[in-house]
Every structure is written in structure tokens, then in C-alpha cells.
Amino acid sequence: MRYGAHRTVRYLFLFLLLHIPAIVEAQETTIQAHQELEIWNDSDLDEMVADERFDFRLGYGNFALSTTFLIHQPSDADRLDPNLYGDPFEGLRKRMLEARVGSAVAQIGHVYSTLARGVGLQIIENQPVDFDNAVDGFRARWDEERYQIELLAGGNAFDEKEIYVKAASFGTAALSDLHLSYHAVQVDSTDDPAGRPRGRDRIHGGDFEWSSMWGDLFAAYLVRDYIHPDENQREYPQGHAGYGVCNIFWGPLSLSFEGADFLRYKWAYSQGTPIPIRQHATTLLTRGSHVANFRLEDERGYQAEALLGLLDGVLAVTLNHSASETHDEELPFFESYGDLQWHPNPDLTITLRASESEETIQAANHETFFERLTYGGNIYQPVTDTWSVEIDFETQGVQEQNLSVSSYTFPIETRDNLATFNLYHAPNLAFAVTHEWTNDAREKKDEWTFAEMNFQFMERHQLSLGFGSFRGGQLCSGGICRPLAPFTGLRLNWQTVF
């Protein structure tokens, strides 16, 4: 029945796709397209990976058709790590047909949805971290001034069909500034490749959102009930997710408070759920971020941030503190971060930043403690009307201790340093050189240098060419992290917007 429903969606989509040329005759249409070609040639591995992505959208009145065509070709798929580079692929990656009538929208094909800001359901594409958990199915949403209704049903769009999701959401504006919502999600999983049963997850709960000229408040609480497919093992303790964020605006001062409590809340579409950990933009701070180690199955935490503007925007100070731990107070984490942005004149910008963090993580059969002290800064200075320079520096001292042998071994102490020089020519040229060095004896190399040049030409085209080596680490975006492998060689990226 499930597979038959998916075939029906595909047949309907194919029928509409074939008949669109006959339908679109007299009325005006809108066409949007974007292509991106990326080639990595790794000289250390003597291998190459090529990716071509073409996104196309055709709009006609109340209807829209969007598709994504993808070519992914590692030169030696058996040799390259499939967890980093994936299997070869070429063909239509995604397709979706949309119809809008007034405040209602219906979609079939590859659809996405976010409920309770991602706490209730998180079906998204996050291109910076190559994350996409689209559902192949149906989505409908109706938005009125006081009511919102959303329905979704389908199965995982990629790989073998193993996960089926049904979701319903109802929201109402109880008062002019207060919005209440209720969400219900059911996820059914078939047997995994090893034959182990997956069972059923039921998630339900609500959220409220309030806003005014002084700030806003959002809070959500949902519970997770897991039903084992074996009737003799169906009694499982309930899980939950509590999340809230409050923003206060008072003249030049902005305050933000965020908290979360998760227990047994890791399930198929929970990845990317908002967590109360600051996500950084600099390389070394991101590499040591706790975001990748946050556990939805058992963790609670908070963060508080203050942003203060002084002297009519000449100075801006940001202070942030975040902390989390398991419910039994094990595996603690904290980070204190601050930065100062100074504008001595309208053109010059100087930024100073500092961070201290400590965390204990579970590593294999032992626990490992990390302490990181990070300092850095940034200077941006226009030279002429079209030329400007930017210099960024960051240094991080790391102390790492295997707690199972801490009574008779010293901790490992390392220092990593990273400097970047950027040269800009408005509006079509940017050049950057990044150099990193370390005293970590466990690394095969102790220095890495990577240069990259970006050209924008003919208004719609952008070409980036990079060469050299970089250390790797991790990249985080929207609560999702992915590892970056070390690289030495040539990288090319070409994008065109039609």
C-alpha cells in the first residue's frame, strides 16, 4: 500500500510534467534556474570528485514546478571514503509540483516542513553541510489571519524506502500578539538492512509564540512515545523535548535567553533540532564546537547573550555564556565567549574575540576532557573606493585528557594558529590566503596554506579557483555538523544564475 501510494505520486507528477508544454500557451510564465559545478582534485589521494547541480523552477499562474538534477562522480568510488564523498549518482535528484489557491498551498513530490521551529519536525535541506532529508510525498498548508493548518505524508526520498512520516499541525492566533499551535507526528520505520525492526515513533505537543515591540517569546514542549514492533517489548519510557527562547530589546541593549531539555528524543527527523549552544563563524571555534557532541537522547542546557551598542554605533560588545550536561550531571560542557567591534572611523572596523570552553565527551570506552582557550581578531580597511583589505587571526590552546588514565598520564597540550589575508576589488574580485600551523605531534603535517580567488563576470556568473592544502575539521550550520577531510590540491567552483 505504501509503495503503491508512492508510485501514484510519481505517475501523477510525470503526467503533469509531460502536459505542461500544452498547458502553458497564452499566459505569462516565470523561469528561474541555477547551476553549480564543483571539482575537487586531491593530489594526495590522486583522485578527483566532480559535482554538477542544476536547479530549475517554472511558474505558471498559481502553479510551479521545481526540479533538481545532480551529477556526482568520484573518480574511484571504491577507493574514496563513501561517508565523505558518497556513491556515484547522475539523474533527477528532486522534483516538486506546487499549486496555490489564495492562502492555501499544496505540494507533491519532494517536500519539506518545519514544525515548532524544528522541535516538532525538521525536514530541511542545508546545503552548507550537505544535509537533505526530503520526504517524497504530499504537503498541504492553509494560512488564514487567525488559523494555520498543515498536513504532510510520505517516505524518505533518498536511499531505500525505510522511513514513513505523517504529520499534522494546527495553529491559532488566540490574541493579536499570541499564537498557539499543536503538532502531531508519526514515524514508521521498516526493518533496517541487517533485519532489525525499527518500530514506531509518535511525537505530539504544542508551542506558543508571543511578540511585541519590546521583544518576543517562544516555547515548545513535545513528548515522544516509542512503540516496539514486538508486542512483548512495547513498554518503553517516554521521551520529551522542551525548548524556549526569549529576546528582549531595550534601546541599544539586546538580550537573548535560550534553554532546552531533551530526553530520549533522538528519532528519524529530529536532526537539526535547535539547541542552546552558540554556533561560531570562525574556523578554530567551529572545529571545537560542542554542537556536534550535543545529545538529543539525554542533555539539557542554556545560553544567554547580551549585545550592547555604545557611542552611536562606534562600539558594540557581545557577551555569551552557554552550558549543558546530561540529566545525571555527567558529561558537562560550558563556554564563555565575548567579542568587541570598534569603528574608529566609518571605514575601519576592528573586531576582537575571546572564548573559553570545557567539555567532557564519551569517546569509545572512556571519557575525554577538553579545555580550549581561543583568542582572535579581525581588521577590515578600505584602501580606495574599490579596493579593501581584511586580516583575520585566531589562536587556540587545547588541553586534552583521557580521564581513564588521568591518574598516571599528563594531558596532551597543543596550540593551533590560523591567519587569513583577504583582498577585495568591488564588485567582482576577491582573493584570500589562509595559513594554519600547529604544534600537534599527532598530525602528519604542521602547516597548511590555501589560496582562493573568486571572480564575478557577466553579472550572472561566479568562478572560484582554490589551490593548496587545508587541515580539515568540521563545519556546522543550523545545528548540524559534518566532518571536513584534509585536502591538498585544486578546487574549482562555477555558479550561474539564470
UniProtKB/TrEMBL annotation:
Signal peptide start and end residues: 1-26
Domain of life: Bacteria
Pfam families xref list: DUF6029
InterPro entries per UniProt: DUF6029 (IPR046070)
Keyword set, alphabetical order: Signal
This protein's name: Alginate export domain-containing protein
Organism encoding this protein: Eiseniibacteriota bacterium
